[in-house]
Specification:
alpha+beta; 3-stranded antiparallel sheet; about 50% strand
């Protein structure tokens, strides 16, 4: 069974003397897609905020499962 994966991005936004932590979550159909997205997105965020983090986390919500196939009715 395949589960949805969440890409969690955390970074610090500085605006003059005020700074705050921002968090974004983006969902992907599986861990592989999340990892590929993280490899593309995170370097851009890291260049803007050295105090940042990206993490893929598997959810408990299935994105795909094998469905049973019906048998032909030979009756």
């Amino acid at each position: 069974m395949t589960y949805w994966a969440a890409l969690i991005l955390t970074y610090t936004v500085n605006s003059g003397v005020i700074s705050y932590e921002a968090t974004s979550t983006v969902y992907f159909k599986d861990m592989q897609a999340c990892s590929v997205a993280s490899d593309v997105i995170y370097p851009v965020i890291l260049a803007q905020s050295r105090d940042s983090m990206a993490k893929c986390k598997r959810t408990e919500l299935p994105s795909y499962s094998i469905r049973p196939k019906g048998r032909p009715n030979n009756g």
